[in-house]
Amino acid sequence: MLEISKGGILIAEPFMVDPHFKRAVILICEHEQEGSVGFILNKGLNMQVQELLPDFPEFKAPVYYGGPVGTDTIHYVHTVGHILDESMPVVPGLFWGGDFEKLKFLIRSELVRPSDIRFFLGYSGWSDGQINEEIDFGSWLPGEMDANYLVKNRPTNLWKSAMEHKGKNYSVIAQIKDPLSWN
To answer: How many whole angstroms separate alpha carbon 87 and alpha carbon 162?
Structure first.
């Protein structure tokens, strides 16, 4: 079984009923002994970042629901860590956070495009050992992150794509429709 680690993903099992995590694909950005932090990659909020941050430059970047923890906080995952100071590497070519004032400058200078970054309201968090218990219980399937999940996949197709990426057995599961209809 694939172990969860920083830079990995969690894919919700197909019958998860928790509305926060139903059909979620979560990028794990931190996995330490004290706990883990991640962001749901495929739950858009139908708003732009400047609607939440009035002093933010005009920027056509949607905001996603990162998870039920700290829903009064904004986070970002991006591909521009080479020019955004204080960015934390997640996997090669993918970064979390960074100097917020510099980010605004880079956006105003058109050095960061909407396709380079994804904003999240809140995050998903687990205490020490909790994530492994949930995996053992069958709530999550660990997987490998593909940078295309962030920048190229449509969020509505991401759960299916991540399941199919796990291989033949999971590609059958990926065909299960949501919502389920019991005829």
So the answer is: 26
94-139: per-residue pLDDT in tens? 999 999 999 999 999 999 999 899 999 999 999 988 988 998 888 8
Which residues neighbour 173 within 8 Å (Cβ) at sequence distance 6 or greater? 14, 163
Dist. CA 66–CA 64, nearest whole Å: 6
Q: Where are the domains of the chain?
A: 8-173
- Residue 176 to residues 17, 56, 77, 142, 149, Cα–Cα distance (Å): 14, 40, 29, 19, 20
The DSSP secondary-structure symbol of 4 reads: P
Provide CATH code, domain 8-173.
3.40.1740.10
Contact 25, 42 (CB under 8 A): yes
